[in-house]
Amino acid sequence: MVATKAGISIDRLGADLRALAEIGRAEDGGVYRMAFSEADMVGKSWLEEKMKDAGLETSRDGACNVIGKLRGTDPDAPALLVGSHIDTVPCAGILDGTLGVLTGLECLRVIVESGRTPACDIELVAFSDEEGRFGGMFGSQAFAGQITPDTIHSATDPGGVRLEDAMKEVGLDPWQALQARRDPKTVGGYLELHIEQGPVLSTAEEQVAVVDAITGLFKWSITFSGEPNHAGTTPMPLRRDAFMGVADFAHEIPRILDENGSDCSRATIGRVELTPGSPNTVPGEAVFTIDVRDTDETVMNELAGAIRKALAAIARRRGLRFTYHVESWIKPVACHPRLVEKVDAAAQAAGVRYRHMESGAAHDAQIMASVCPVAMIFVPSVDGKSHSPAEWTPYDDIEAGAKVMLGAIERLAFGES
Description:
By secondary structure, the protein is α+β, with helices and mostly antiparallel strands. It has helices at residues 10-21, 38-53, 96-114, 138-143, 149-154, 163-169, 200-204, 242-260, 297-318, 337-350, 364-368, 395-413, and strands spanning 57-60, 66-70, 79-85, 122-127, 187-195, 208-214, 216-225, 229-230, 266-268, 272-275, 281-282, 285-294, 321-330, 333-334, 354-359, 374-379.
């Protein structure tokens, strides 16, 4: 029988959210729990204690993914994994991946308190560095066997801190991450609840989304190199202004998306750094980022080709040189039909207002899809706000999402209909 609304304690879940939000809280109201920072490690320890209090067996793998296990009746059956992440961007809100982890914890508490034993192990996982401080989804990529020695040796954060040094600073051996790979035969599926991080559900006044697919994305770091020169004595036609190359390219983005993209395509220049950076000097170098997303990898490849052509044309026209470095390429994935069906059935049974939709943000589920079938549940983000202290989801919507998650777990781990 599917658990009723009384099964989930929104008061207990809310208390957990508030408690974890204080770890890394700053005076500006934001949460600063970036991957492998001191606050991140304190948060991991806090979570482990909560897992133990809930009756779960706890462990950490070589990537410092925190895992809590509820044992099932069949030790040989592939485990059902539930999870997300608790690391944050700088000046973050209190939900993001954290809500998925703590909702999973609440669901497992309900199961333990009911006295029932699932047919398979259920594991709650908080993956390390989903926010990509070091360029990728380090924890889930390690779990999926997608990292190499070069990942550990060369990965740095935007401030130049090396992954290897950051892990050593908090007492971790970074090379142990190479041993975090999980045998896919031991994992039967993965469920993740997350805030939408967009305005669709909030605008439609719906409580839950069943996610059908997760966008792919690629990130490049691009450099235009020109010639620094005096701002007052260098005539405009004789300038090799690196920033003008960025400006030209920014104006090309709508055309590139119209001609080569789809309705799901997104492209963003998120950071620009100019050198020398003096008010009275023509910029000789401009380094900027481009983040491009779509749910179809063929479209992603077409957009990448169109971007390269645009950059080359601008460089020729402006007398510049350009180079680019691929920081990441994450393939889009479709959620597994069997798991989507279970989530959909749980949403119907819970009586919540819901829809199906695609995810425009990347998540650990995307990486986990290389290991096992995956499905995702979204809850609304008020006004679409995320990655800021203004990020919020009303408690009744959080409770609705938790009920759907619990129902999906029960259908998958207990064989309920």
